[in-house]
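A sample copied in:

***
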Amino acid sequence: MKNKVILVVDDELEIRALLSRFLARKGFEVFSAGTLSEGRRLVDERSPNLIFLDVNLPDGNGLKELKKWSQDFKSLQVIMMSAFDHQEARDEALNSGAIHFLSKPFNLAKLEQVIQKDISTN
């Protein structure tokens, strides 16, 4: 797992910090961004294996970016996150290439399940 690079894109500092600390303790190399534009730059610079991507960001919609990244980077895995757990957004994310959809706030037990199921096996 140490070779996996993970990018966390979320406008909430607390979410970025929580995910970054948790994933770093699991042995991942973690970068974070508070905007889509910063996330795009880090995708180009760091070539992450996985992105935790918020749906609603100050400079755009994560679902639209998911569709673009899914087309441009075939091996990139994305886990979508949202504070608004609407079935419509969940379905759109999963149909657009996300490997998982996390509803915020999430607890560390749920995050551990996602890591074991979706990250460690891919």
